[in-house]
Amino acid sequence: MKLEGFELRRVDMPLVAPFRTSFGTETRRDVLLVRAVVDGVDGWSECVAMSDPLYSSEYVAAAADVMKRYMIPTLASQQVVEGTGVAPALAPFRGHRMAKAALETAVLDAELKTTGVSFARELGAVQNRVATGVSVGIMDSLDALLDTVGGYLAEGYQRIKLKIEPGWDVAPVEAVRERFGNILLQVDANAAYSLADAAQLKKLDAFDLLLIEQPFDEEDVRGHAELAKLTSTPVCLDESITSARAAVDAIAMGACRIVNIKPGRVGGYLEARRIHDVCVAHGVPVWCGGMLETGIGRAANLALAALPGFTLPGDTSASERYYATDITAPFRLDDGHLAVPRGPGIGVTPKAEVLDEFTTATEWIPAA
Ligand code: NPG
User: Fold this and answer.
1) Ligand 1: which of 21, 32, 159, 188 to mutate, judged by most atoms within 8 Å of the beta carbon?
2) Is there an atom of ligand 1 within 6 Å of 188 CB?
3) 121-339 falls under which CATH superfamily?
4) Ligand 1: does its nearest atom lie under 6 Å from the Cβ of 290?
5) Alpha carbon distance 347, 119 (integer Å)
6) Which of 202, 214, 330, 345 is spaced 20 to 30 A from 357 at the CA atom?
7) pTM for the complete prediction?
8) Residue 190 Cα: closest atom of ligand 1
């Protein structure tokens, strides 16, 4: 088998509505797609890095650079043609997990498209469809928030996640609880608080939330453990969980009772599965996060979210929640669920005409 090369493709996708978090407001998604070619078969993936290093230290231009400068030449020189070979080959390079995840997934997709095995089957999925939640950004007013949440509930979303930050926390949670009653509700702070805010965060205990996600800095695992002793709302970690080892440490410290798994953040689906396995062994429920993926990333996330430990609805919403036109056939909500793709590999391929419309740059890096 021959690794022929990788195409790096920048795609500029307008979001259907601005998405505001404590680290900024997104109106477009600057997507880096990767296409691996192995023996003439294309494997696709989506790098989850954002344009700017505000959610994590990674960003799109850096991911493309480290792939081109270090990672692809290494995969080429070792002629890595199997997904399981990518992480060991790239292990000498520190960090850059989002870049590593994209390369691993593209090679895995090419491999599985060749062998005819679905991502879901390869990862050990046990569901044909996954329960779906939706993440709701910070809004200008409580009225706008209630309208948005009401719309999503009417569409069938099974749980609501509210983005919070200092100044937008208790009031939106209280308003949503009051209006919509006993829905599954959780909050995500994206590291906007510190342990000094524990008294404010403790006020959320009154609203029977499923969880509070990543209130503190990603390196402040101990702070999360302290908060967990002070509040009854379960603490969930996202940014802090960079690997299976980090998950083991966080669980052992009592820093989280629930884990959000994002394959891109942890270096790929194979490490994501290891995190899942560690959490299952410790009785810690997991759910699949989202990073405004197109259909390429969403397809693979759905396969992961079908593993047995994913017992909470994820941020794997329908395509139309993000994009008027998606790169792949759109994923549609059906009775509050999305179907898990069953075709070979990630089970989807991009539509050429949509790619052409939104592509801003492409580069082919041969592995010959
Ligand atoms: O539905 O894909 C989605 C978005 C879910 O809130 C969401 N993602 O912090 O989890 C997060 C947040 C995010 C979005 C993080 C974009 C980074 C980039």
Assistant:
1) 21
2) yes
3) Enolase-like C-terminal domain (3.20.20.120)
4) yes
5) 7
6) 345
7) 0.97
8) 9
